[in-house]
Amino acid sequence: MQKAVNTQVFRLEIPTPFSVGAVNIFLIKGESCTLVDVGPKTREAREALRVFLKENGLTWRNIDQIFLTHQHVDHSGLVAEVAERTDAQVIAHPNAVPYIEGEETFMRHHDAFFRELYEENGVPEQLLGHVERFQKMLNMYSDPAPVHRIVRGGELLGSCGEWRIIFTPGHTQTHLALYREADGLMLSGDFLIKEISSNAFVEPPARAGEEREKPLVVYRRAMQEVKMMPVRRMLPAHGEEIEKPSELIVYRLRRQEERAEKIYGLLADGAKHVFELSALLFPSIYIKELPLTFSETLGHLDLLIEQGKVERVWSEEKNVYLYRTKEWAR
């Protein structure tokens, strides 16, 4: 027998200027009110949110909490303005804080990490401007905002205890979802999307000198864990409701394995670097969508290394890392 729920969930679709399209944000309404993500810093997002609150009988001051699933600007860009208007508590993962608060030391570390990563994996010099474009995007579509409460997963969202915070890394290493046990509902952010696969983005480690996480490997582990939970449906941040999330997870895991096998096949005739493989996998978009295609390619190479099928070697001749099959190495 399904337990009674004490909060209502309302969805707002906000347009974004990004290729992913509109973003879904959510209002959890009960004794207190929580916004789950806020959208980018655009006039359209601001107006849509104002009207949304009014239609639900609320003003800005009725919002008590802002829960950020992760730091990407289509989810968090408007948080500084909304926090100021509402005086709400902003909640996020600790490793998302430097992005959200615009910490200068971390952002310098971020840019240096990507410049080195791109260079040592074959990205041509003329394309390294993508690193600076990230900062320009942050400046255009977000403002720095304070984070008042950090959570790592496992905590309750509020005093009523109806929503539990679930750590769901992969898309970012800071990604959080909300789960309501009473009816098996998960507000899943970008963890799982019905219409498209959610990219597992490469990110710098939280501190300089540490090893980066292997985003696809981490993501697959998180999907396996969520698959074991009694989640009946998901409301994602993009697209339609997911009615059978465990089935979609199985499908996504299989598709990732198929792509890894395709990359393995591309290495059959010799070693290649990440940028070279990206061009073969995504010939029409590998330059335009460099951060996405690079992450996708490197993530699957991480998976192949984890599976013991591929190894990474440094080429003194080319001054890049090359990936080769274990069979080719012999």
From TrEMBL:
SUPFAM superfamilies: Metallo-hydrolase/oxidoreductase. It catalyses: 3',5'-cyclic UMP + H2O = UMP + H(+); 3',5'-cyclic CMP + H2O = CMP + H(+). It comes from the Bacteria. SMART domains: Lactamase_B. Residues 22-238 form the Metallo-beta-lactamase domain. PANTHER family: ENDORIBONUCLEASE LACTB2, METALLO-BETA-LACTAMASE SUPERFAMILY POTEIN. Counteracts the endogenous Pycsar antiviral defense system. Phosphodiesterase that enables metal-dependent hydrolysis of host cyclic nucleotide Pycsar defense signals such as cCMP and cUMP. This is Glyoxylase, beta-lactamase superfamily II. It comes from Aneurinibacillus thermoaerophilus. The lineage of its organism: Bacteria, Bacillati, Bacillota, Bacilli, Bacillales.
